[in-house]
Design a protein that fits this description.
about 110 residues, single chain, mainly alpha
């Protein structure tokens, strides 16, 4: 029982460690998290496949993290394009308002 508690505490610490590792790249974070989870699963399910589970978990973590980063990048591009379109509309509205002011000023001189 005591060994199992220690295993889960160590696994939890390893899984939480990448959260504070801002200097690591996205692939490394995915590998660390997936490897920790895979190691725990490999150890608890079959008892002797900790390293195999960690290796498989590392690969899966990298792939999942790449998909997440790709999705975030696509959302950022869409948001940036929407902001550019809105800025263009705002400039057009400002130009139209300026033209209207000039027309009114010419029509009704002071």
């Amino acid at each position: 029982m005591k060994a199992r508690v220690i295993t889960f505490v160590v696994a939890g610490a390893l899984a939480a460690a990448p959260l504070g590792a801002w200097a690591l790249g996205t692939n490394e974070k995915g590998c660390l998290v997936g490897g920790a989870a895979g190691g725990v699963v490999g150890h608890t399910v079959s008892g002797n496949n900790t390293l195999l589970g960690a290796a498989i978990g590392c690969g899966a973590g990298v792939l999942i993290n790449k998909q997440r980063v790709k999705k975030e990048d696509e959302e950022n591009v869409k948001r940036h394009e929407a902001e550019k379109r809105q800025a263009k509309r705002d400039r057009e509205i400002a130009r139209e308002q300026e033209r209207e002011r000039e027309r009114v000023a010419q029509e009704y001189p002071r």
